[in-house]
DNA sequence: CTCACTTTGTGCATCGGTTCACAAAGGGAC
DNA sequence: GTCCCTTTGTGAACCGATGCACAAAGTGAG
């Protein structure tokens, strides 16, 4: 009984689905550790914190890997999702900017866990160049292009100050990198075909503050009624 | 000419809009520093990296704050967005878990910048309790409830190991917190009405890897043709 | 004042994503 | 084999968000 592949898998998995696959993968790994052999969409959905219909539709984009009346084989599904996400290969990651955040990232265990390997640390500050962090030598930013080439880096993490981020981004793009994870609080402009993902702590906090304000407003009897603005503002 | 408020502002700004307001705010602050008095939706949209129609629709949810033929008054718009996001008040934030990441967050400047103040650091490890980080004393997690109450903390940042996150979340929720920023790689379950935002480094990397794989697949002539799975997998 | 020009605010078509609800498929008992 | 139970995979309705395109509103020149 050879399993047929993917009438449903022409090309193009919805972006929203891709963003959830890592979540399913994590939940499945937990289940595999606990020795579960199969899991239903309902159980997996609960573990991942999503609706079960959504989960099934997501998985159906990868192919038809479940068994009706039974569920999904945990190990097999782990393999399929891993392969789809490209985690069966090894990705070399370079971290640029070894300040507090860069250091934290370099030492972050979960980073390395699945398929990713921190292959280089770079910084512009001669004070930190040469330091040994998480078993790696911090190299000078001048070496950027050479290091990327030599170590086969394909994903770059930007943890530089905001002012330096665009400049570094230009250089890594010129060096052939097409995947960037940006922690600097700036909107980077890059050519078509380069993927940027942005993690912005202060934006997350501001979104929380918005909702928190709404909640406390509601408690104290609606928002400030007459929403005047202070005279500090000159129009 | 007193400006009328918000026929368009009944209540309820779309979530997608809320998520972009901080972006606009950052772009506007940059413009204010450079001394610009007014800005068109087109220019602001470019600076924030969005479509100008979207920008105008977003701003229209706050009220009608532009002037046709002219644009938006930079300072006035900064004030309005800040007020809407709740940044005109001061938010006390507690960081739980003072490992590499917690330290980085405590020292992160952009954190404090607008309206947010790190008011407490907590950890379970007696080794780090008592340390002084970013001008704050690290307190023991046993003090959690007391510290939250005493310092008026309303937002909690979780930077604990995955295994501890749910337990801490339960405690802070019990202590009345309704806004949590979670860096631990777990799906937290919390009661209705509690807002959780999740930042997950490894998920971001996995999404990048997915797209990167697609790109390199395309270069090397399509995805691995016969997608067999290794015999390692037992069905 | 009128006219030409700029830029906002929004109606409308469209799109992607979510959810419901159910037919189809498989397993197991007998 | 038949029947019943479980669970998948998906059609279809729905919902929110996006982007086009334009009327309405304001500025400034003459």
Task: Give an overview in words.
The structure is a homodimer. Chain A is α/β, with parallel strands linked by helices and about 240 residues long. In chain A, about 45% of the residues lie in helices and about 15% in strands. Chain A has helices at about 15-35, 40-50, 50-60, 75-85, 100-105, 110-115, 145-150, 160-175, 200-220; strands at about 40, 65, 70-75, 90-95, 115-125, 130-135, 135-140, 155-160, 180, 195-200. Chain A has a seven-stranded mixed beta sheet, sandwiched between helices. A three-stranded antiparallel beta sheet of chain A has the order 1-3-2. In chain A, strand 8 (about 155-160), helix 8 (about 160-175) and strand 9 form a beta-alpha-beta unit. Chains A and B meet through helix 1, helix 4, helix 5, helix 6 and strand 9 of A and helix 1, helix 4, helix 5, helix 6 and strand 9 of B. The first copy, chain A, binds a DNA duplex (30 and 30 nucleotides) through helix 1, helix 3 and strand 2.
């Amino acid at each position: 009984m050879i399993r047929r592949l993917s009438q449903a898998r022409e090309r193009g998995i919805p972006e929203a689905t891709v963003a959830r696959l890592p979540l399913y993968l994590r939940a499945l790994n937990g289940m595999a550790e606990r020795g579960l052999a199969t899991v239903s969409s309902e159980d997996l959905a609960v573990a991942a914190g999503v609706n079960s219909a959504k989960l099934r539709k997501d998985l159906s984009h990868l192919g038809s890997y479940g068994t009706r009346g039974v569920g999904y084989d945990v190990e097999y599904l782990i393999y399929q999702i891993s392969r789809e996400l490209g985690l069966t290969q090894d990705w070399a990651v370079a971290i640029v900017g070894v300040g507090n955040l860069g250091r934290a990232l370099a030492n972050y265990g979960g980073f390395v866990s699945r398929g990713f390997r921190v292959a280089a640390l770079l910084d512009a500050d001669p004070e930190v160049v040469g330091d040994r962090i998480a078993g790696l030598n911090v190299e000078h930013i001048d070496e950027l292009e050479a290091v990327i080439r030599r170590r086969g880096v394909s994903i770059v993490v930007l943890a530089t100050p905001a002012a330096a981020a665009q400049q570094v981004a230009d250089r890594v793009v010129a060096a052939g990198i097409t995947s960037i994870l940006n922690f600097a609080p700036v909107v980077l402009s890059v050519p078509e075909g380069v993927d940027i993902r942005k993690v912005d702590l202060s934006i997350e906090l501001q979104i929380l503050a918005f909702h928190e304000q709404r909640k406390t407003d509601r408690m104290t009897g609606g928002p400030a009624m007459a929403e005047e603005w202070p005279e500090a503002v000159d129009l």
